[in-house]
Design goal:
- This protein is α/β, with parallel strands linked by helices.
- The protein folds into three domains: 6-187, Ribonuclease H-like superfamily/Ribonuclease H (Nucleotidyltransferase, domain 5); 198-284, DNA polymerase, domain 1 (Orthogonal Bundle); 301-390, HRDC domain (DNA polymerase, domain 1), CATH 1.10.150.
- Helices cover 53% and strands 7% of the residues.
- A six-stranded mixed beta sheet has the order 1-4-3-2-5-6, sandwiched between helices.
- Strand 5 (78-80), helix 3 and strand 6 (100-102) form a beta-alpha-beta unit.
- The model is unreliable at 394-398 (pLDDT under 50).
């Protein structure tokens, strides 16, 4: 087994950056986080490989600035697998590509049955990668050699995978499609913070009454603040199910809360005063949250036949056409056009349905040019057919 050294100081990063700058072609980049262990989504290991420069493993918390690395590789193509997951952590560290090749997304566009990194490496190169440490706590220090080998292999083969997939994209005439999708990942805006994020509490649907929701909000907020302070994943302090159990039990005293068997978690008793204070604050809250938030989401499609019959007819006519085109292109339907986009344009179509107007509506909703070119005509025709079908007189009985 090769021995890997983690670069954990600015001088080491500058030496590695010089080697990478002198390398050839694109760079493979990967990130290891400590999801499920830490509160933050920061990078705890960054792996970079370039032909002629080898693999370099960086320890982000120990490095003051990644500017030399950004200067060295920022202008070349970065190869990532599932780039949308890694870009936020990379950007937080000061690393931002100008162009990318996403091997996971390319595999989807090509219709590969399996798109995980290990599967794509195996399918394209015939190399089997062990995924034993994919869920490890990468904030661990020092990192074991077996983990470092796993992390290095994640980038060591990625350029070869990129080249194999690029040939497939060319053979299937999907080079431009992939380029548009890669650019869309790069350009995707940062998601706005969710309104009332405490409503993500698993099991909240069992909580009844606005007063109980106020207590749920207070408990969730107290846990979130403590998790941020400790940089620990909230569920490792007190799991969601334990907070919901406390809400259901409605303890009358702090001692009742302490005796509650289902109120578990490593901080459930050590921070008992914190949780009890949150419960009391929620009970005393004057501004009670609504039972549910108004949303701009559409009704579930099963309700359309009663709520909006013309939209139901449009959706039922257009969906098979889009699915058939996805089959012809050998890609998942959701990559050709997400179900949400199709539902929205079916629910509220242009006043005059034409290929151009449907294309404009899809563009406004965020569809890429290639998606519009592949689907606008199909959708427009399906919408027209749905109207004609409704207007057609019933066939005469024989």
């Amino acid at each position: 087994m090769a021995e890997y050294t983690v670069i954990a100081d600015d001088a080491g990063l500058e030496r590695a950056a010089a080697l990478l700058a002198a390398g050839d072609g694109p760079v493979a980049v990967d990130v290891e986080r400590a999801s499920g262990f830490r509160y933050s989504q920061r990078a705890y290991l960054i792996q970079v490989f370039r032909r002629g420069a080898g693999v370099h493993l960086f320890d982000p918390p120990a490095i003051s600035t990644f500017a030399p690395l950004q200067d060295a590789i920022g202008g070349v193509e970065w190869v990532l697998h599932a780039a949308s997951q890694d870009l936020p952590s990379l950007r937080e560290a000061g690393l931002d590509p100008v162009s990318i090749f996403d091997t996971e997304l390319a595999a989807r566009l090509l219709g590969h049955a399996r798109v995980g990194l290990g599967a794509v490496v195996e399918d394209t190169l015939g190399i089997v990668l062990a995924k034993a440490h994919s869920a490890a706590d990468w904030s661990t220090r020092p990192l074991p050699q077996s983990w470092l080998e796993y992390a290095a292999l994640d980038v060591e083969h990625l350029i070869d995978v990129r080249d194999a997939l690029a040939l497939e994209l060319e053979a299937q005439d999907k080079v431009d499609i992939a380029a548009q999708e890669f650019q869309a990942v790069l350009d995707r805006p940062v998601k706005a913070p969710r309104e009332d994020p405490w409503r993500r509490l698993s099991g909240l649907h069992t909580v009844r009454g606005r007063r109980a929701l106020a207590v749920a909000r207070a408990l969730w907020t107290a846990r979130e603040e403590y998790a941020r302070e400790q940089d620990v994943a909230p569920g490792r302090l007190v799991p969601d199910r334990a907070l919901v159990a406390a809400l259901a039990a409605d303890p009358k005293t702090k001692q009742d809360l302490a005796r509650l068997k289902d109120f578990t978690g490593r901080a459930s008793r050590s921070q008992l005063d914190r949780w009890w204070a949150a419960i009391e604050a929620g009970r005393a809250e004057q501004s009670l949250p609504p039972d549910r938030l108004p949303g701009d989401g559409l009704p579930p499609p099963r309700a359309w036949v009663d709520r909006n019959p013309p939209a139901d007819a449009r959706l039922k006519a257009a969906r098979p056409a889009v699915e058939h085109r996805a089959e012809e292109l050998s890609m998942p339907t959701e990559n050709l056009l997400t179900p949400e986009l199709l539902r929205r344009v079916a629910w509220a179509p242009p006043a005059e349905v034409t290929v151009e107007s449907v294309g404009a509506a899809l563009a406004e909703l965020g569809a890429r040019r290639w998606q519009i070119e592949q689907t606008a005509q199909l959708i427009a025709q399906a919408f027209v057919d749905s109207v004609n079908s409704d207007a057609a007189p019933p066939a005469a009985a024989s």
